[in-house]
Amino acid sequence: MFGIQHIKFDSMTYVIHFKNGDIKKEGRGLSFFYFAPNSSIVAIPMGSNDLPFIFSETTNDYQSVNIQGQISYKISKPKVLADVLDFTVNDYGQYKKNDIEKLNQRIINEAQTATSSYIHSIKLKDAIRSAKAIEERIMEGLKSSPAIGMMGIEILGANILGISATPEMARALETDTREKLQQEADQAIYERRNFAVEQERRIKETELNTEIAVEEKQKQIAEKRMESEVQRADNERKLREMQLTADIAVENQRKELILQKTANERKEAETQGFVIETTLKPYKDIDWKTLTALNNNPDPKFNISLAFRQLAENADKIGNLNISPDLLDSLLNSKESERQD
């Protein structure tokens, strides 16, 4: 009414109220009445913004790459930005110009300028794998850029979301990568087979070493057994020698015993013969008749036999000798009776 308007802003908007070209009030989240014919209101958003970008560059080997990412920034000096770009709003709080797009484009241009020199110095394969390096280049370029400093903004961060080659080159790289991966797979298979062969060789070598060790142990066992056999044979020989020595000693002792026994028997026989000879010596010169008479045998048969002996000795002197049958019969009967007894 009569040109007086009321306007209200949120807390994330920095407001500058110009009246007749001079700043009447400024601050965040203001709400006030103003006279529209002589007032101009600038509203600058203070929150952080995420600015997506995508641009194409050429690598050192003349290949195109597409770089996609985003830049985070916020307006730290709104009055500085208000002097560079137009953020004036109408009575309804809407921007009269779209200078926020200019701000975004200038940031993207600075980011692309910082990136292009680096991309032009490397090859396609390196560029695809250089996201971290590009992020650092963008941050360094934006923070050191005078144009960015003059606009009163603060760069919060830069992120590279993707770096891609053209579809044809992507397929070529995929083919090359696939071949290299296949070669690596073949190399891995070769190494695995080689490792398996090496392990098999080691196993065979271990088995051979084990067999050699077993043969060596068996040889040592055989040698030890032979030594034991030799030792046992030597011990048996020594035992036999000791037995023979003992037998010889026993036989020698037996021989000495027999000789001693024979000598003793000889001495005993000589002693007995001497005794007999000494005993019979007095009777040596005595007539047998006298000895018979000394025997004094009362048996009439003995006397008859002596008589017959005497008759036999003097047979040349006897002409006729008559022996009665009764006498012979008595002698014979007496002998038979003695035999029966």
From TrEMBL:
A cellular-component GO term for this protein: membrane
Family matches, as InterPro entries: Band_7, Band_7/SPFH_dom_sf
Family annotation (Pfam families): Band_7 (PF01145)
Compartments, record wording: Membrane
Main localization category: membrane
Record domain Band: where: 15-193
Gene3D superfamilies registered for this protein in UniProt: Band 7 domain
GO BP annotations listed: proteolysis
Membrane-traversing stretches: none
Record membrane topology: Single-pass membrane protein
GO molecular function: peptidase activity
Stretches assigned to coiled coil: 205-272
Entry keywords, A to Z: Coiled coil, Hydrolase, Protease
Protein name: Membrane protease subunit, stomatin/prohibitin
Originating species: Mucilaginibacter phyllosphaerae
High-level lineage: Bacteria, Pseudomonadati, Bacteroidota, Sphingobacteriia, Sphingobacteriales
